[in-house]
Amino acid sequence: MQPTGTVRSSVINLVKTIVGAGLLAIPYAFKSDGVLVGVLLILLAAITSGFGLFVLGKCSKTLIDPRDSSFFSLCMLTYPSLSPLFDLAMITQCFGVGLSYLVLIGDVFPGLFGGQRDWWIVGSSLVVVPLCLLKKLDSLKYSSIIGLFALAYLSLLILSTFVYEYSSGRYEEVRGDISWWSVYDYKGLMSTFSIIIFAYTGSMNLFSIVNELRNNTMTNITAVVNRSIAIATVFFIAVALAGYLTFGSNTLGNIMLNYDDTSIYVHIGKFCLGSMVVLTFPLLFHPCRIAVNNLCVWAQLQREKRAESHQECEPLNPNTPSSVRPISLSVQDSDSRSLVNSYGATQGNEEIEDLEVAGNGSPHVNIPDGRFYIITALLLIAMYALALNVNSFATVLAFVGATGSTSISFTLPGLFGYKLIGTDYLAAGQVIPSLEVFYKRCSFLLTWFGLGVMFLSLYVIYTNGAG
């Protein structure tokens, strides 16, 4: 398939991936954090998440074909033995959040239009399934545009209510205490910290965006990341400030629950929330399907390796075509492209030298049509079946965020960046530029930041469960 993505369409899809229903929980985080600390935490999340996306884009350039980038290809190149664990983290994150969206559909629409919860969940498949059958992420740009309009309405509703309450003087009737400079609740700060950090999760679709950009230069990738993070940050800060300054310490976990349920504008807002969730689901399903396929390919590779180990004493037939080739990095010179395994050349890593993947010399794994539809069907059936039988799984979802989200947003990008950034210069016999060294060291710090966020989040989950 020819790449069709533009910077604009890529920004639309990445913003819609990042800004989801979690936007409505950000004002609740300010309830504990206060305005100053809350804004600082949003900026911290924006910088760290944005740098993680930038590092993933930069690492994609170390492959023979940057359009064949994926978490799987980079894992097989750097930490092949851990590849299935990383794909499991991706599946856990996307499956868990997607499942929560289906449950939210069953909670929102019956209150608006009546009917049974289960029928609304099943009915959402009329929109969800066709979108999930699209093979290219760029094909979802039109549904993402509609989702962004829904987000815009929700944001305007929250902002306009804030302006109206202050201009009319009615805010004193609904607003609790406001904390501008100090933390209002230190115990709540630990719990809400993860809300803000996880709100920026969008790395699951970064590689699809890189692969589908018509001109996927590092300049364009950086532009997509910077613009997406900037737009998401504007959404988060505006909604957080307007929502929190309207209700103060009375702010609820979902800001929409604070508004008059009889208002037609609130009903439209809830409809926009439900529509946004329906249209965001395919953006989470797309990387989940890729990760499941990667596990299938990894299992196939292990079977092939075991079969080869049993036959290693037998003479090889030079006429037998091989379906696998080593993963290599690329070095571009003025005359031609030479394929170099930089780890084998510079570090003598035999594990990397012997690494093989299916395909025509590419580390990227395409999904055959048959497997594409089988994986799609099995995942959708599993997610809808669980959504119909589970009303709440807040603890499970919190665990998913603590492990899956931190892995794909911070830990994995940091590990990839620390091991891959600068290797193309070494393979070409050049000195790594100081800026590349800086990115490499920051990647190392990003890994530890991700581990710190994960352990802090798991601690909060444990203490809340024990309490």
UniProtKB/TrEMBL annotation:
Subcellular location: Vacuole membrane
Chain ranges passing through the membrane: 12-30, 36-56, 77-105, 117-134, 146-166, 186-207, 228-247, 267-285, 372-390, 396-421, 442-462
InterPro entries per UniProt: AA_transpt_TM
Gene Ontology terms describing biological process: regulation of sporulation
Example of a GO MF term: L-histidine transmembrane transporter activity
Main location: membrane
Signal peptide per UniProt: none
Topological type in the membrane: Multi-pass membrane protein
Domain Amino acid transporter transmembrane: 4-455
Keywords, in A-Z order: Membrane, Transmembrane, Transmembrane helix, Vacuole
Gene Ontology CC entries for this record: fungal-type vacuole membrane; plasma membrane
Family: Belongs to the amino acid/polyamine transporter 2 family.
Name this protein carries in UniProt: Amino acid transporter transmembrane domain-containing protein
Organism: Zygosaccharomyces rouxii
